[in-house]
Specification:
By secondary structure, the chain is mainly α. The chain has helices at residues 17-29, 52-68, 83-102, 109-113, 117-121, 127-130, 138-159, 161-183, 193-211, 218-236, 244-262, 266-269, 272-294, and strands at 8-14, 35-39, 42-48, 115-116, 188-189. Strand 2 (35-39) and strand 3 (42-48) form a beta hairpin.
Length: 295
């Protein structure tokens, strides 16, 4: 393009079109009439010669304001690989599935461990734990192994496997208790999906807390939670035998767990002893609940 220096002046130049577009919007907002053009390998913004001095002042003020604006918070850095927790999750689910199938220890694991609203309201709290390890069939356990493994892997990467799975288990238990409290004594259910969607809620909450201080707008800050809700709606609301209440309350409990996790200092999450203690608590809670259920 040929620029006529007598009628227009270049007030801004950049290698990309994006910054030129921002400057053009700025100048339009103050009543000027900028023109954006490609100029060789650059992008330029032009205004009338009579307005050039004012345009440059506005651009300088805009630059100064942007320099003073605080930067977005740094993204959360992964702590670990997350594979150990997923391996433990898979091992527990397969062990309980085999125990149920073979009536291990001459016990009916399904009857002893499933969600039974009347029994839980009468004080059998351990069913909120044991039911998380039970499944109806191969398709049920395969789906929960896949989604639980994926969500748990991400949570383990950012919180460490011990803390991540402790919070997932805790949120799953809370979700089951809330669901029974709402559904009443006639409610019966099994499955790890309450904990699976707790893990999804935990991830969404962690993502939101990481963006909470951003200046990019509310949609950017809430995007992780919105995405998590979309996944919940797509994967957790279908099927004739789907316990939608358990999915929702597990997800809500997971959101709360994520808020708690975000407050734990990174230095604590990096301590092997803390992760080991949390992992031991998971094993103790699961084995203790099953010991009571089968006793």
């Amino acid at each position: 393009m040929d620029v006529d220096p007598e009628s227009q002046e270049i007030v801004f130049r950049a290698r990309r079109r994006g910054p030129c577009g921002e400057v053009a919007l700025l100048l339009e907002a103050v009543g000027l009439r900028p023109v954006v053009h490609e100029y060789g390998s650059d992008c330029i913004v032009l205004v009338g010669a009579a307005d050039a001095a004012r345009a440059r002042r506005e651009i300088e003020a805009w630059r100064a304001e942007n320099l003073q604006r605080p930067a977005d918070p740094a993204p959360r850095e992964p702590l670990a690989g997350g594979r150990r927790g997923v391996a433990g999750y898979i091992a527990v689910m397969i062990f309980v599935a085999l125990a149920v199938t073979n009536f291990a220890f001459d016990r009916d694991w399904l009857a002893a461990g499933r969600i039974d609203g009347a029994a839980m309201l009468a004080g059998e709290w351990w069913r909120a734990v044991t039911a998380l390890t039970l499944h109806a069939d191969l398709a049920h356990i395969a789906a929960n192994l896949f989604f639980g493994g994926v969500f748990g892997w991400f949570a383990g990467r950012y919180l460490g496997s011990g803390i991540a799975w402790f919070l997932i288990l805790l949120a799953g238990i809370v979700g089951n208790i809330l669901n029974v409290w709402i559904m009443g004594p006639g409610h019966r259910a099994i499955g790890a999906s309450t904990a699976v969607f707790a893990a999804l809620g935990l991830l969404g909450s962690l993502g939101w807390t990481g963006r909470r201080g951003s200046l990019r707008g509310w949609l950017y800050r809430l995007a992780p939670v919105i995405a998590a809700v979309a996944v919940l709606a797509y994967t957790g609301a279908g099927g004739e035998r789907t316990d939608i209440g358990a999915h929702i309350w597990g997800f809500v409990a997971g959101l709360g767990a994520g808020l708690l996790a975000a407050r734990v200092p990174r230095e604590i999450l990096l301590r092997g002893s803390v992760q080991a203690a949390a992992g031991f608590a998971v094993v103790a809670l699961l084995s203790g609940a099953w010991t009571i259920a089968l006793g």
